[in-house]
Amino acid sequence: MYASELEIRVRYEELRREADRRRLVREATEAARAAASSGDDEPERQVSIRRWRVRRAGA
């Protein structure tokens, strides 16, 4: 194998690893945002449960 081929392969691996790291960071960030946004409806859910309990107690 020629030195230039070896250098090209090494550079390709470095770029691939960097792309993998960036992808993992992006996926982790998106997952964290999704987890944070899914908790946004938590107060609404608690209110609806309270309303149900009040209706149930009144019946």
TrEMBL record:
Origin: domain of life: Bacteria
Protein name: Uncharacterized protein
Lineage, highest ranks first: Bacteria, Bacillati, Actinomycetota, Actinomycetes, Kitasatosporales
